[in-house]
Amino acid sequence: MKKAIALAAAALMAVSLTACGGGSSSTAQTEAQTQAAAEETQAAASEGSDLDYVKGKGKLVVGVTDFEPMDYKDDSGNWIGFDADLAAAFAKSLGVDVEFVEINWDNKIMELDGKTIDCVWNGMTLTDEVKSSMSTTNAYCNNSQIVILPKDKADQYKDKDSLKDLKFAVESGSAGEEQAKELGAEYTPVESQANALMEVSSGTSDAAIIDSLMAAAMVGEGTSYENLTYTVKLNDEEYGVGFRKGSDLTEKLNQFFADSYKDGSMKKLADTYKVSAALIEQ
Fold it and tell me: How far is CA 32 from the centre of its chain?
């Protein structure tokens, strides 16, 4: 704020000096200087405020990956899902539009800090790394990492010890990759959890480690991967949304979560995407 006031004062002084200087600078130069100072002042005023930054550009840019039922595209190519619909509702509450940008999950922190996105809202596990690198919201959904295998082989793998000789596919930079490391298993990092499922279905990998919420939506009878099933649950975890460090949007979203839970709209949305059992009271 002090920087903004100083810049504004400098702009006014520049105009005053030009007027008193008897035409030492042209009118065009004066206008250009004033405009430049005003733009700097505006930028300084919003410095440190993500809320002002987002409102100033008129949109909230959300970093996502293809992750049903949280963020995925409908037949018309529009992003939908529990997280996508919540993000759109939050943006509307701020008076701005929402824009979804598909990111490489491994680069999420770099994308956020570089301001190519304003938040990471994609069934993001609240790991220590995430919480130290971002300003994170309260947890809003429970989750776990779970092993995906072909149905005809699932009976052979009932516990963690039985998994160690398998070759896994995992999303790069994900909680699934962390679990593969903890198992000491061989694994191949891929671009998304959806790709990890494809690897197993095609036989390129023996198994995958993905989020349980995604497994419930995409694996088994009535899904695109009827030949796959989920077996061993590896951990328990929670989802949160990440903003830039120090962002004032974090508390804004926490309040939105609380209000949405109280008025029932969050529960209604969770019912739509079949994630009600994972919802955390706000």
Answer: 40
